[in-house]
Amino acid sequence: MNLDITGWFSGKHALTKADANGLQQVADPVAVKLLAFIHDNSFAEDGLAGLTEGGSGANPFASDSLNLKEQSELLERNPARARQMIIAAGRDPKLFRL
Whole-model pTM above 0.90? Predict the structure, then answer.
């Protein structure tokens, strides 16, 4: 599936003006971080499907959706991803022995 998100980035004023060849670059730091996150996760061991595979799709480490079974499985299966999700939830990876 191809997804063209140029319009979305353009609407958010996250792109530079087109150069002589009509090419634009992402200039907004938040958008760059978003694209880096997507890139890193799409090439991770389990790909983008791993974001929701076998779970609710929510961050199991978030304080409003603690799911000990998902946490345990993720910590065992993919510690690097678990660490990212723990940090994204605003928690300390040391609490999970990472």
Answer: no
